[in-house]
Amino acid sequence: MKPLIGVFSIALSAVLFAQGPALAAKDAPSASTAARVSGLHFLAGHWEGRVNDAKIEQTCSISDPAVMVCMFQLNGTKGTEMIEFYTIRDTPAGVEERVRFYSPDLKEEPGDGLTMKLASSSATTFVFENSNGNNPKRSTLTRTAVDEFHSHIELVDAHGKPNNIDAYWKKTK
User: Fold this and answer.
1) If exposure means fewest CB atoms within 10 Å of the residue's CB, which of 4, 43, 74, 164 is most exposed?
2) Mean pLDDT, rounded, for 66-93
């Protein structure tokens, strides 16, 4: 479940990253290199969402125009189940998100974390892809209102069986 949770924060970041303060009427360029982290200043703040019975939260801080730092938390029926910290940053290859997973007592999960890259974007739809694995394979985000969006995460297990996770997010004031 832990790699799946990282997808939720990726979903939030991707949707907020590629959009302006209001929904646009026409599509933006599809090249991931056209987008920059500096366009994410409106993301600073707190977001809340739900996935089934779990509450998800995210807070982002932007003090460097090329790097955004965020904290994500999953709260299930037994309280905090997972914490993650991640950055979204400009790289020579385009926008990249790097995620590290932690237990509630801040024990880091083994491995190098998760890296996803913005593969394409339009005015309301944003796609991040994981070129190093299938869990998650892809995260598609659709902005449904100025302060709301839906994320659809595509997963493929070790046996090739697909699965999806859908999350619904709202920005809090």
Assistant:
1) 164
2) 91
